[in-house]
Specification:
The chain is mostly helical. Helix content is about 40%, strand content about 5%.
Length: about 200
Amino acid sequence: MTRRSTRLRAEPQDADADARRCDSPGCEAAGVYRAPRDRSLSAWYWFCLEHVRAYNAAWDYYKGMGPTEIEAHLRQDASWQRPTWPLGRLGSYGHIDPAVLADPLGLLDRAATRRRPPPEPTEAPPELRAALDLLGLPWPVEQKDLRARYKELAKRYHPDATGGDRSSEERLKDINRAYSLLRQRVPPRRAAPQGAPAAAG
């Protein structure tokens, strides 16, 4: 990164440079440094290096202005001394070119998407897959479907229904463990938005 020099530089030489003397009273040195006479920045003094430094140190842009004038000037500086007006006062209100509002990168859509609830995952979490396979259920699954499937399998493999078959008893233990895991992990059904019809079931 280059550093800007703070040293004063002499103005380019011109035809009057040799004859020009410092405008500071009593100074015979050459006047090679320009300094403004007033705020208009249209008329200039010419000083030697010593006197331009002294002039710049004492320069007061707001000299002669009252507090109200200074305040008004500072407010104008906020808009670079250009006039301002309320939006829609120049005839453009209501006639906006659609190309100006184009959103080719989808930034506005992304902002709206952040407010939507995240979509449900389409694949079951790895730790639930074995339990789902054992119960023969798809993913995602709702609590009511989980309960209905569990009741169906519990009846089928209950010792009273199988005559005390040992393998059926072990299968029922696995079903109980799978049901317990899924019941804790399957989220409850989301309530329908207000005004939306409830799903039949």
